[in-house]
């Protein structure tokens, strides 16, 4: 079964263009079950061991383990086991899918976390005064202006940016490309950031960067991350964790001390567009969502805001 796991992951990477992060999660979820079946990490597991009883025990261990896993984590693991089981059935490795009858946990409905527009704009305008301010503001302005995922933001190249057209080419999930607009404020921040970069030699002018050079390189051009789905680690990109620290540091006040992540900027991008009358289909295209159902969560955010505004303002609410 461990050999089948490697074939399964290879197929996901080659045919479905699954990202390395997703592949790593799939490997962890399935390896955990195989180790349980074998009784030791890495030990061989026969095909007959992949049973419903094994998966039920693995699911129970997630619920009752320390720390207790969330319903979302359990649901993700079950989806992974089911995908792997179906792969093995297609290949004739096992006769039936042992995960077919396992129930998915009920997931709580969570609305996306958004930041108030006025406070967010003020916080972005306050970023100044230290050595990293130009880079940090460019990162946050671009993420908010174009609704980028964290991996899309750190994966940008110089050649992806078209200043004249005010757009940027983005490589999203499944390596799908899309073109999204950039606002004037984000472009101005990018120009200030690029102008602040040191010249390669004292007194020398910085050469025009290569089109495939990272827009946001790591320290001294070295890679700070474990690589990017579409590019090798040698490209020297800024680490996603660095961006997370920048967001927490620069936007803590806006989040009212509740914590904030880079994805909150993407949520805010979509919600603020919808609040100001943007078409839901257009927002879907800008976010790179494959399904409109994924984008529709933002309509619930706007409805909740309307309800709150009504309750606070109407004299007989």
Q: Explain this structure to me?
A:
The protein has 317 residues and is mainly alpha-helical. The protein is built from 13 helices and three strands. It has helices spanning 2-15, 20-38, 52-64, 71-90, 117-125, 133-146, 150-154, 184-196, 240-251, 262-275, 280-287, 292-295, 297-313, and strands spanning 161-162, 167-171, 177-181. A three-stranded antiparallel β-sheet has the order 1-2-3, with no helix packed on it. Strand 2 (167-171) and strand 3 form a beta hairpin. The longest helix has 20 residues, at 71-90. It is globular. It starts with a helix and ends with a helix. 28% of the residues are buried.
Work out the radius of gyration. Answer: 23 Å
- Unreliable stretches (pLDDT < 50, length at least 5) are 221-235
Strand order of the largest sheet: 1-2-3
Indicate the percent of residues in helices. Answer: 40-55%
Q: Hey, roughly how much beta strand do the residues contain?
A: under 5%
Instruction: Report how far apart the termini are.
Output: 61 Å
- Following the backbone from N to C, one meets helices and strands in this order, namely HHHHHHHEEEHHHHHH
**Total number of β-strand segments?**
3
SS-based structural class? mainly alpha
Q: Biggest β-sheet: count, sense, barrel?
A: 3 strands, antiparallel
What is the mean pLDDT?
87
